[in-house]
Prior knowledge:
Layout: E1 4-9, H1 14-25, E2 29-34, H2 43-56, H3 79-82, H4 104-114, E3 119-123, H5 128-136, E4 144-150, H6 165-168, H7 171-178, E5 184-187, H8 189-192, E6 196-197, H9 199-206, H10 211-231, E7 236-237, H11 241-248, E8 253-258, E9 260-262, E10 273-275, E11 287-293, H12 295-306
Helix pairs in contact: 1-2, 1-10, 1-11, 4-5, 5-7, 9-10
Amino acid sequence: xxxxxIILDCDPGHDDAVALLLAGAHPSLEMLGITPVAGNSYVENxxxxxxILTEMAxxxxxxxxxxxxxxxxxxxxxxNIHGESGLEGVPLPSPTxxxxxxxxxxxxxxxxQKFPGEVTLVPIGPLTNIAHFVLHYPELxxxxxxxxxxxxxxxxxxxxxxAEFNIFADPEAAQIVFQSGMPLTVMPLDVTHQAKxxxxxxxxxxxxxxxxxSKMGTLLGFFHQTYYDVFHIEGAPLHDPCTIAYLIEPELxxxxxxxxxxxxxxxxxxxxxxxxxxHLSGKAPNSRWAKSIDRERYIQLIFETFSRYA
Length: 310
């Protein structure tokens, strides 16, 4: 069976790192490239983190830096969750690899032209890079197989009461993507907060013989603690790997199609994904939203795939 071709658009980030390693090792996926974006940290850090992860995991995947700031809003990052570097919790080596000297959106366009109808974009950070692609290459949107997003929330936020971080970090970009007409599958907070990893499971990951997976376990211990400190919840939600798990085993999730837009003007609701939950608008849905997950199988899939690392 042909491997599904993906471009991972990310802002590593602890859960981004799990998603990257999951995509890099699973035989059903082919990562054409990684396009870091500013989000959990500044783009210099997210690019560096992507280079470190691909080098430590021995993944032959190019890293192509993307946007360093949102389209319009003032930039925000998340050191309270991911640390100043975006990937704190254990010492990591400096990368010897270098990023490709081209623009992320040009790389996306190149791959989509090379493999029309076969490339899935997987944005798990702010949607800035994807919005730039929409604006600069509108003629290629019909050749994108799918866009699988980690972002938004149907019923709650995590940065404001109603706004999720990735969307709040660049709401204008998110609205452009939601209005793009590309096939959108969304992993919102409603499902990713069901996708928690607990301390006992993290300890098992730390016990792996693979250095990168053992360190990933330690990183998740840091992530688990910051989540508890900020949100006072047990278990660290593995938000971003839900996108990759869906591509590998879509039957892990339950879905419903909705009309969704992003609020750009509300005093209290800026950055909210406004989801027509009761289908009141009468409009055709523009996105498919995950609502449930088989958590036990999700964690099992991660561990099975991570066992492929030597």
